[in-house]
Amino acid sequence: MSNRNIAGGVLAVLLLGAVTSGCTGIQGLFSEDFLNATGLVQRSATIPGTAPAVLITMENRTSRVVTMNLSYRLGSDTVESFFATMPPGDSSGQVVNCPVTEITLGDVSNLNEIGAIVRLGGGTENDPFIEVEPFGVLLRNTANYNCGDSVTFTVTPSGDTASGYRIVAFIQRTGD
Asked: Which of 10, 62, 86, 105 could form a disulfide with 153 if both were Cys (CB 3.0 to 4.6 A apart)?
């Protein structure tokens, strides 16, 4: 009997026990290396790194609730937006399949558009708010980031702006 058959038999017994106890996905039960070694699942790419996608994250580094608008342009020239309202210290993001040609916090079609507001109440839509100055920079594929990279937009307190807050972008390169 081959090692692959033995591994498959062991995995089948373990899966049977997992299914009867309420678990349904094998990826959640075993390490990716183990599953790849058994040959029962295909290798998968990870983010950031070798995957054909960009990880785009928004972070709230203030002491107040912040609403942010992320905008990006896909290779098909389609513009997508993602809104998130986050309590202090929280973050939100998404993985976007490449090609992603442009990214900004605000609107990729209008760099003067506000990309973040800081809520002065408990975080509801009816709260008074402060508009953070526009990020005003269009990050472009291959100039600022590449497929597989991670882009994080952060709202932080600032003594240098009229609103008292600013938007900063961090790009983590995968090291092609």
From this structure: 105
As given in the structure block, the two tokens for residue 135 are: 């990020």
| Chain position carrying tokens 């002491």 | 63
- Retrieve residue 81's tokens: 């937006």
- Which of 31-35, 51-55, 70-74, 152-156 is least confident? 31-35
Q: State the amino acid at position 108 in one-letter form.
A: V
d(CA 37, CA 129): 53
Residue type (1 letter), 133: E
Would you call 75 exposed, middle or buried from its count of C-beta atoms within 10 A (0-12, 13-18, 19+)? exposed
Question: What pLDDT, on the 0 to 100 scale, is given for residue 29?
Answer: 54
Query: The tokens 């269009």 sit on which residue?
Result: 138
Cα first-last separation, the chain = 42
**What are the pLDDT digits (tens) for 11-29?**
444 444 544 444 445 455 5
The vertex-40 CA angle with 37 and 44, nearest 5°, equals 75
- Amino acid identity, residue 32? E
Distance (Å, rounded) from C-alpha 176 to C-alpha 174? 6
